[in-house]
Structure formats: C-alpha cells, structure tokens
Predict the structure.
Amino acid sequence: AMDVERRASMMLLQNLSIKKFAGVFLGFTIIFIACVIGGVFGPTIYERIDVSAFQCQNHGMMVFNSSVCGGVNIADPKAVWIGEVIRLDKFNQDLRLVAAPHSKLTTEYEGTLNLTITISGKNAGNEQWTDILVNDTHSRTISCQGFECEAFTVTYQPYIAYGMYQFKISIDGGQSFLGDVIFSFLYVNNAYTKFELWFRFSFLILNVIVLSVFVFKLRHHTHRTWTFEQKWMLVLLLGLIAYNNPFYALELITSNWFPIFLNRFLYGTFLVLLMFFWLVLFDAFRINSEKQYAFYRFYLPKLILLGSFWIIAVTVFIWDHFQRLSDPVYRSSEEMPGYLALQIIEAILMIVYITWLIGVLIYGCFASRKIPMVGVRVRFLGVFTILVIFVVIVGISVGAFGGQFNTAAEFLSYQALFNLYCFLLAIMYLPAGDPNASNSIGMVRLDSPDIVDARFELTHSDTDL
C-alpha cells in the first residue's frame, strides 16, 4: 500500500497540531470579533424624520385643536396630510413612510383605517411634481393598547428615483378612536452606504486574491490528485464572489430595479450553495468506493432537496420584489397566493436537510476515531462549520438574516463571517510539499484504497458490535 501519511501531508490541514489548530481557531475568532466591534461603532443604517399630523404645541394632545395645532385633523376624512422629504440621492438607497397612530381612547381597541395615498417626486425645486401613485386606496387593521397603536408601513420605495418626494394622505374610518398620527420618513444613511460599499469592495478584492492564490497553488498538481475538499473549495470561492457581488455599485448609480434584484438573488444563491457544500463534504466521508460518487447516487438527491428549496425561496423573493415595484403600498410576501403552503414546504425541506446533515456529521465523528487522515479533516471542517451554523441560527432568531440588516454590526458580522470562513478553509486546503512529488504520489483522496479499507474495517467492527 502507498504511504498514506506521506500523501496526507499534501494538504496544509493535515500538518496541523492541536496547538496550531487552537491558534487558527483563536485567530479566526479574534478577527471576527474585531469586525463585529467595528460594525458596532459604524454608522446607523437608517435616518429617521418624525412628523406629527397635528403639529400641536403640546405634543401629548390626542384631540385636535386648531388654536394650538398647526397641522391637520387626520381623523377627519376630508383632511389631507401633506409631507415632503428632500435632499435625497441614490446613496440613500430606499425610502419608506411609516405611520404610528395614537388612540384618544384609554381602552384596548381594534379598528380599520382606510387610507387614500398620492405620491409624487421631482429632482429640483422648480420642476413640476411627477405622479408616482394617485389616490390609491387601501386599508390597514390596527390594534391599540391605551393611547399607543401599532405602527405600520404606509408605502415603500425600493430605490431612490427622485431627490424630493411628496406624500398626500387622508384617512377614513378612524373618527371614533383616532387621535394624532406620527408619520416617519426612513431612508438609508448616506454614511452607511459608503461604509457598506467599502467593506463589500474590500472583501471582494480579498476574495479574488484568495481565489487566485488557491488556483495558482493547485495548477502544479494534476486534477486527479486534487482532494474532494479542494475541488469543492474552488466552487465555493467562485460562489463567494457572487455573495460579495461585484455589481453592487450599480444600485448606487442607476435608478433601476435590476441591480437590487441581482443583489438579493446572488445572496440567496450563495447561501444555498454553502448548504450544498456542507452536505456534500460531510457526506463524502461515508463513501466506500468511487462508484458511489456517481451523479445520480451522490449528487442528484442533494440537488433535488436544495434545488427545491432554492426554487421556492427565489419564487417568493421574485414575487415580493416585483410586487413592491409595481405597488408602493404592498405590505409583505404574506399577501402572495399560496404563501403559507410554500412556507410549510420550505420548513419540511429544511428539517430533512438538517436531519441529513446531523446524520453525516455523526458518521464523520465515528470515522474520525478510526481513520486518522479523515479525522483531522472532519474535526477541522466540523468545528468551524458548526460555529458558522450557530451564528446563522442566532441571526435568524433575532431577524438579522436575510439580506437586509438593521445595524452596521449585523451587516459586517455576516459579511466577515462568510468571507473569513471561506478564506480559512481555502488556506487550510492548500496543497503543501513538493509539487513534483505530488504528481507521483498524489494527495489523500476520500476514495483512496487505504481509506476505503479503513472504512470497510470500521463498518465491519460496528457490525460486530
């Protein structure tokens, strides 16, 4: 038999001692925490301008009094509130108008408000207003606890097409309970956009450098000697370029829906690719022969599972995106026909995926005890992958995961997490040693005869037990 340990040294990962492994883990953690701290001290994402419909001298007034209030009695169906926001540019990214009604009752109340909305825009003060939406009527059901009622989004502009916007709103149906309404304009902070742009660009440059070094190192070795991890690492680094999105700047220089769509599309596609990467690599540790790498046996089931998940996610996103473009008062994807059914299917697919991943992780743990050259690969990939999955789960639980973030810390945390994770794997999967020797000896492949024999012994020893 060939010298397995000598071939195993052909990846940097195989030469890691426990101390070096701990050092790599500590370095990864320190850099990640530094990025989180940098995000904490970063700019706020949204600028907010609050405007009272009543505009009373006493801001606590719940009943309109024209002698001390300079605004309009928004509870009057004939009254029209007019609000303007100015000095916007494409770096402000998007604009939303949020309404926070106040009740003049002290008891709990649930009611329906019928809103009539007109939206106009222009770029200069001497221009005529261009109508975006005219007298559009829709309803909102709100509940109130005492004087406070739940806020809701009145309208959303997914990109900034004008430097100035004007909103005209009248409300019917609130005469019995509606007091003042606080309208809030929210748009992305110009400083945050620059912050996001520079970090995206920086990670993209690092991504290209790591990919170039990885390809340069591998080119000295024949393709058949590449390990399974190295082949898929190349795919993941290409996918990471999509995540870092080299086309992001188009959002800031064009008034068009496509760059926004492309950014969300590439984001979701990378996440599904990462899930596929995890499942493929961990599942590869159970393969006993090269025949089991056949497409229809090894890859097809995973493609069907994650492909279905990707199609559903993209369908919901496309529907939601185009509804927001065509209807500025569109609320959420929950209005999509069949949305609940798609959510249930997504949940089932995710449960199947998690169960499958846990299963192959458990097998990998058993294999790591019996097969040393596989064990270090399982432990390394497992530790960092579990860390990434944990952070993602935490992000989902607090609503910070999905492509849109609430703070600069959330954005930079996930941008750094996925990039550092991929960079670290790429470095550890780099070939080591003499390229000429690798051509004759080869790197350890998961389907090498030595590993297959070890797996055979592992399987039979488990059977004997």
In short: Residues 1-9, 437-447, 449-465 have pLDDT under 50 and may be disordered. Residues 295-326 form the longest helix (32 residues). The CA atoms of residues 247 and 259 lie 7 Å apart.
